[in-house]
Amino acid sequence: MYATTETLATTPAAQGGRSRWLALYTLCAGMLMIVLDVTVVNVALPAIQDDLGFTNSSLAWVVNAYMIAFGGLLLLAGRLGDLLGRRNVFTAGLVVFTAASVLCGLAGSQEVLVIARFIQGVGGALTSAVILGMIVTLFPEPREQAKAIGMYAFVASAGGSIGLLAGGVLTQAINWHWIFFVNLPIGAATIALAVKLIEKDKGLGLGRGTDVPGAVLITAALMVGVFTIVEPAAELGWTAPQTLVLAAVTLVLLAGFIAREATAATPLVPLRIFRSRTLTGANLIQALAASGMFGIFFLGSLYLQRVLGYDALEIGLAFLPTTAVMGLLSVRYSDKLVMRFGPRRPLIAGLSLIVVGLALFTQAPVGGNYVVHVLPVLVLLGLGGGVCFPALMGLSMSDVKPEDAGLASGLIGTMGQVGAALGLAVLATLAATRTAAVADTKPALDALTDGYHLSFAIAAAIVAAAVAIAVTVMRPAKQQAEVESGESDVVPEAA
């Protein structure tokens, strides 16, 4: 089949048709709240800085505290979902995230806000890590699963651009506190619906994976790694002593984790999961695609703000075409494309469209016209994302045993988060370096634009590498065999 049709004995797959879709909408609402929070906060950072007196360097911790907790805990949270029950972990994450959002809104000091943002990251990881695993058990039938994953992929990938608009509206119309307070009614409603609509799953039990040393090692490795990317690497450079030391610590922790998992009787992350070429390839593609896409949304926003003079609300409106196109494809057509052509062809086609869009962005000039120089790029990114991300999410879960669904869900989320953080740090550093190198010979806006152009070109190359992996690695032999034997209604893909 296109994805696993097995479920645990008492999973929500037994729910009725209508209630399953209502459960999906609830899961997507939880994911949307998490995704929106990232870009909503970015838009409000200047107002937060003015109100609480952050310096430019300390202001970064409003974002970094969240990213470190979120990226560091995704993998562990996904495995906890398998062990403790995915609905339990999902609802616990919503409670933590919602409570931390209220604390963020009430924050009257820098310290309280940063601590609350870290707690938000914990809740976000618990909530989002298990969603994809829950979806594949709710929808075991290939056609329905493709449609459900399309909806999830749209929320996960395009929700950030909605956050740009929401952040601009809330910050300008009321104040920055409300970008957090708005999570209270959404979170409370989502918790209530989750308890009512999502059938409780038992989980495997802690005895099947109580690997405390492994949990400590992987969580520490991911947190140190994300911290290295967003703090010393971004602020001091990739060759600074602090960056090199922390990178070495990350590698040592990862090596210790792998050694532990290879010998543990009940490993937190069974290494056998990486024997799947499909799963491993999907995660590599996710990391590369997130590196290119997330960095460009950030740097593209800076281009609109610093070069074209857009304000926060105008930036949010500018990115709406990406959201609209991606939403239309993800919700209405991505499942049909996957069922007609299989997941690999839409994945390659979508990634290729993203490469073309990023390459086109390198031509956006100083004083560029939105309709001529920006809109075509955003439409291409929307087309590409709407086609490739649903296929990628499906592939990431297609060769996974039911008892590992939460782990696989957390893994794809982790790769996306780490890839996004790494891509943003690398692309922002390259843009700043290029701008500084030509600042003495070019006007300020031209120097800025040169830096952005270099980053857009590098982002295109990164996503092109993802295309290469999709072409060479993602050859779903199991699916092909099932198609040929008549067990699946997915059209065979070309080798």
Could you characterize what this model shows?
The chain is mostly helical and 495 residues long. The protein folds into 2 domains: 12-210 and 266-484, Up-down Bundle (Growth Hormone, Chain: A), CATH 1.20.1250; 211-265. Helices cover 79% and strands 0% of the residues. It contains 18 helices and no strands. The chain has helices at residues 17-52, 56-84, 86-106, 110-129, 131-138, 142-173, 178-181, 183-197, 212-236, 241-263, 277-307, 312-318, 320-341, 344-361, 370-397, 405-438, 444-472, 477-485.
Note the main sheet: none
Q: Can you give the mean pLDDT?
A: 82
Label the overall shape: globular
Task: Report the oligomer.
Answer: single chain
**Helical coverage, percent range:** over 70%
Domain Major facilitator superfamily (MFS) profile: 23-478
Protein name: EmrB/QacA subfamily drug resistance transporter
Membrane topology: Multi-pass membrane protein
Pfam family, one: MFS_1
Which helices and strands appear, and what pairs or packs with what?
Elements: H1 17-52, H2 56-84, H3 86-106, H4 110-129, H5 131-138, H6 142-173, H7 178-181, H8 183-197, H9 212-236, H10 241-263, H11 277-307, H12 312-318, H13 320-341, H14 344-361, H15 370-397, H16 405-438, H17 444-472, H18 477-485
Helix pairs in contact: 1-2, 1-4, 1-6, 1-8, 2-3, 2-4, 2-9, 2-16, 3-4, 3-8, 5-6, 5-16, 6-12, 6-13, 6-15, 9-10, 9-16, 11-15, 11-16, 11-17, 13-15, 14-15, 14-17, 16-17
